Amino acid sequence: LCAGCPLLEHAHIWRPRRRMQPVEETEPSDPQTPTLPVLQTLDIDSMKLASLVTYIMRKTHMPALTELEVDLANIGKAEGDALLSLLRSRYSSMTRLKLMGGALNLDILGFFTQLRDLEICVPLDAFTSKCLERIVKSNPHITRLVMYYAAQTRSRPKIASSLLGTVAQACDGISGIRIPLDTLDFPWVTQEKTPLAQVKRLKDLALDRLHIQPDAMTPFARYLARLCPVLETFQTIILHPGLEGILVPEALTQEEYVNSNRMENLVHEGLVDDSG
Predict the structure, then answer these.
(1) How far is CA 95 from CA 114, 117, 141, 181, in A?
(2) pLDDT band at 53 (very low <50, low <70, confident <90, very high)
């Protein structure tokens, strides 16, 4: 590709038909670093190619690369962290990043400053409020933030509801958010929380999974309606505290199913009341 397609701008490497042979770490006969000078987008969407991802990123010079989408489900934490460190050192001006799977140290993403679209699927323990706060504060122009986890458990997310207020203050242009959230960091029933700022362009919000006590749903919905005044779509999957550590069943409990729908209705009703 480097030799024959110097004007290549977008590359999408899909699932291989045959089993990939392990990438051999041999020195090329040509000592010059292979270069794709105008490549802007690289998409490698098969976890069978995880080792190829790290090989390409280490061995190829791509000075114009701004968008990367890779599946890292089959690589270890050390290799994943090495890849993120490499991205940080060579491609800190990345604007779109999608990382699927893998045990990654997400703190490294706080060193990026130009991200506009970030989508990550990693184990739940990798998400923390401190980590996400650093990411959003370092990337004030981000417009889409999507973070979810593959292993479905009832463990509480380490992302507190206060993160939404941080996003409101740091990223006034964000229009889409999907994150797991834990609302147990604030006494919603006994105190009223007023947003210090509004997310004035946020139109799509998904809280998946949302850990919340049933009696906190109405005050939290009022808070969301004030925080996100132009919200058009709100979706959530509620898990009530008290069943932690149990694998999520194929279907929610009846109470969780009913309350997930109720929470969505409460937010939309709050938006209507505020606009009126």
Answers:
(1) 5, 6, 10, 25
(2) confident
